[in-house]
Amino acid sequence: MALIWAEVRKMTEKKLHPSVLQFKEFVKDNPKIIQEVRKGKSTWQELYEDWYLLGEDDSRWETIGTVNDSESDSSSESKVDWMSSIVGMVKKMDPNQVQGHINNLSQALGAIQSVITQFQGNNPAVGSVKPPEGPKNPFMFRKD
User: Fold this and answer.
1) How far apart are CA 72 and CA 65, in angstroms?
2) What is the pLDDT of residues 61-89, one digit of tens each?
3) Closest CA to 41 of 21, 65, 59, 62
4) Which of 11, 51, 58, 61 has the fewest Cβ atoms nearer than 10 Å?
5) What's this model's pTM, rounded to 2 decimal places?
6) What does the pLDDT read at residue 82?
7) What's residue 135's pLDDT?
8) Residue 116 in domain
9) Residues contacting 61, CB < 8 A, separation 6+
10) Would you state the pLDDT for residue 67?
């Protein structure tokens, strides 16, 4: 199987423009470029055009790795800030007010359910399933 892929690769490289082959070699030497494309920060077309116009010695290629490091640090700090803001909001909540909102939501859902059952009609055989009936008093014991 590996031999087949090697042959396919050779056939496609014969058809590629020499500048594309040079760009592929440049990318192999700079793996941070691959990471930038995988993260979605750039496309291969954009990077190829920059490489073709600016050349391999441009400062853009040196800053790719350093920009990613600073962005990852800032993203981890933003996650910590987000969590601390959530914890702060939970501390400020009034339990009685939250309970009131939950009760209002429960009443609204009950009203919606009653409207839906009115539109469904009074035909219980169509979509409703009755739970099995058990004994009337499950704790009925005999006296000795």
Assistant:
1) 11
2) 888 755 444 555 556 667 777 788 888 88
3) 65
4) 11
5) 0.39
6) 79
7) 58
8) no
9) 30, 33, 51
10) 46
Q: Are 54 and 60 in contact (CB under 8 A)?
A: yes
Instruction: Tell the burial category of 37 from Cβ atoms under 10 Å away from its Cβ (0-12, 13-18, 19+).
Output: middle
Confidence (pLDDT) at 68? 47
| Number of domains into which the chain is organized | 1
Domain containing 70 equals 8-89
Please check whether residue 14 lies inside any domain of the structure. Answer: yes
Residue 111, in any domain of the structure: no
In three-state form (DSSP H/G/I as H, E/B as E, the rest C), the secondary structure along the chain is CHHHHHHHHHHHHHHCCHHHHHHHHHHHHCHHHHHHHHCCCCCHHHHHHHHHHHCCCCCHHHHHHHHHHHHHHHHHHHHHHHHHHHHHHHHHCCHHHHHHHHHHHHHHHHHHHHHHHHHHCCCHHHHCCCCCCCCCCCCCCCCC
Burial class (CB in 10 A: 0-12, 13-18, 19+), 32: middle
Residue 83 within a domain = yes
The two three-digit tokens of residue 33, written as one number: 């470029």
The helix (run of H) or strand (run of E) holding residue 130 is: none
| Residues of the chain falling short of pLDDT 70 | 1-3, 5-14, 65-77, 122-144
